[in-house]
Amino acid sequence: MQANAQVRADDFVITDTKSLRELLIRNGLFLPDINSKWCTRLMLIAVRNKTVFAFKQSQIIYRVCTRPPSVKCLVKKYQWYADQQGLNTGINMALENFPDKEYLILGIAAFSNG
């Protein structure tokens, strides 16, 4: 096997959340912080299986929000954009399994083209 060959995320069974997140990121996905409630093993497996939406790193539009609203407000806006495109974000308002604030800001910027 070549040293620079890329490992596809669906080629391996990984049960460790941190390792699975790293593998998905190495495969070009943009994911929330490992410490967010959204970032669980089951959610990452769903992203790998393409049943839950995740942005590709190339789709992210970098924006800075100097006075961001609350996480709940950002989640509602993020969810609205995803619903418009028929995408499953895996976010459950009742469970409050929200991604981190920075991820939501960049996700909203990507959905709205900046």
How many structural domains in the coordinates?
A: 1
The main β sheet shows up as: none
Q: Approximately how much beta-strand content do the residues carry?
A: under 5%
By helix and strand content, what is the structural category? mainly alpha
End-to-end Cα distance, whole Å, is 40 Å
Quickly count the helices.
Answer: 4
> What does the radius of gyration come to?
14 Å
Order of helices and strands: HHHH
Q: What characteristic shape results from the CA principal axes?
A: globular
The low-pLDDT segments are none
The averaged pLDDT comes out at: 89
What's the count of strands?
Answer: 0
Structural write-up:
The chain is mainly alpha-helical. The protein has one domain (9-111). The protein has 4 helices and no strands. Helix 1 (17-26) runs parallel beside helix 2 (41-48) and helix 3 (71-84) packs parallel to helix 4 (101-111). It is globular, with a radius of gyration of 14 Å.
How would you summarize the topology of this molecule?
Layout lengths: L16 H10 L14 H8 L22 H14 L16 H11 L3
Helix pairs in contact: 1-2, 3-4
Protein traits:
single chain, 114 residues, mainly alpha, 0% strand, globular
What's the gist of this structure?
The protein has helices at residues 17-26, 41-48, 71-84, 101-111. With 114 residues, it is mainly alpha-helical.
